[in-house]
Write a structure and sequence with these properties.
Keywords: ATP-binding, Helicase, Hydrolase, Initiation factor, Nucleotide-binding, Protein biosynthesis, RNA-binding. The chain is mainly α. Helices cover about 35% and strands about 5% of the residues. Helix 2 runs parallel beside helix 3 and helix 3 crosses helix 4. The chain starts with a strand and ends with a helix.
């Protein structure tokens, strides 16, 4: 058996990495989205949402927030992976809250979480960020 064969025959696989498409083993992000926004004020967010963001204690967006909030708001499909504690929950929460029409009294977003504990943590973040909306 040579390097390009498996027990089941020839293989086109060149590596064993099975992470998200567009990201290599080292965590390097491949994206066609070039815009990086280094402060919340330049994201054209609702004033009430900005108050919630600053009230929550954020001063400057994290790397994931700088790159993912705008494409989410603009309706692009986004796959974002980052280490724990980097602001992923706030990233999608801000994106969702920006798109919410507070004059509509109906469900406008659904967030799925794998555990009740995580769902409750996400709920607290969404409520805090949306406090002034």
């Amino acid at each position: 058996m040579n390097a390009n064969e498996t027990k089941n025959g020839p293989s086109n696989e060149t590596n064993d990495y099975s992470g998200p498409p567009g990201m290599d083993v080292g965590g390097t992000i491949e994206s066609d989205w070039k815009e990086v926004v280094d402060n919340f004020d330049e994201m054209n967010l609702k004033e009430e949402l900005l108050r919630g963001i600053y009230g929550y204690g954020f001063e400057k967006p994290s790397a994931i927030q700088q790159r993912a909030i705008l494409p989410c708001i603009k309706g692009h499909d986004v796959i974002a992976q980052a280490q724990s504690g980097t602001g992923k929950t706030a990233t999608f929460s801000i994106s969702i809250l920006q798109q919410i029409d507070t004059s509509l009294n109906e469900c406008q977003a659904l967030i799925l979480a794998p555990t009740r504990e995580l769902a409750q943590q996400i709920q607290k973040v969404v409520i805090a960020l949306g406090d002034f909306m």
